[in-house]
Amino acid sequence: MTDLPGDNPPGPGESADAGSAAGGSAGAAGGAGSASAGSPYEPEELVQQDGMGVPDPFLRLWTPHRMAYIAGENKPTSTSSGDDCPFCRIPSLPDADGLIVHRGPAAYAVLNLYPYNPGHLMIVPYRHVADYTDLTPEEVSDVATLTRQAMQAVRIASAAHGFNIGMNQGEIAGAGIAAHLHQHVVPRWGGDTNFMPVVAQTKVLPQLLTDTRALLTKSWPTP
């Protein structure tokens, strides 16, 4: 992990100019803001970046992939069906490319591209429909069946302690893609809400989506 410096108050007897002139090693050498000697979180070398002041001891966890979500990548520009809707387009892709875990007769299970937790699935009807009350009896049945199977698969694969399951109906309710109905299945574990999402609005995910998909596909129960 690369550490980029930021401003840090000089330690006792140390001027900011002296720390800047001496480079990264002098800036890390001891000041009130330096990491404790022998700390497992202490970077081996604090790199001085021109114009950024005295290096500090903090490690940075960069998550640039989140900017795609913030900037609205893959979000439809219209409410119509077709290739502009990701949930309409995904079933036309190979399962591995679309991150599809399982296909049912009227709906499919797919990994969330921006997961809240590892194994975050969505159950999506093939038909481009916005409201749960507009689903056919067959679609309702398939969404329910895939939801149950998704829970079973995640419990087999990763022993989830619980789940958050639900739909956001309409943009006002928080639906990112309101025009195409989708139900979230979010696995939960004790302690999975820690300081990272609470303080830093950052989620640390231990596994690539392609590996998660392979694991869940293998664990999907046989009907």
TrEMBL record:
Single Gene Ontology MF annotation: nucleotidyltransferase activity
Region (Disordered): 1-52
InterPro entries: AP-4-A_phosphorylase (IPR052908), FHIT (IPR039383), HIT-like (IPR011146), HIT-like_sf (IPR036265)
Motif (Histidine triad motif): 180-184
Disulfide bond listed as a keyword: no
Top-level lineage group: Bacteria
Gly residues: bias regions: 21-33
Keywords on record: Nucleotide-binding, Nucleotidyltransferase, Transferase
Domain HIT intervals: 86-195
Protein name, entry field: ATP adenylyltransferase
Naturally occurring in which organism (per UniProt): Kribbella orskensis
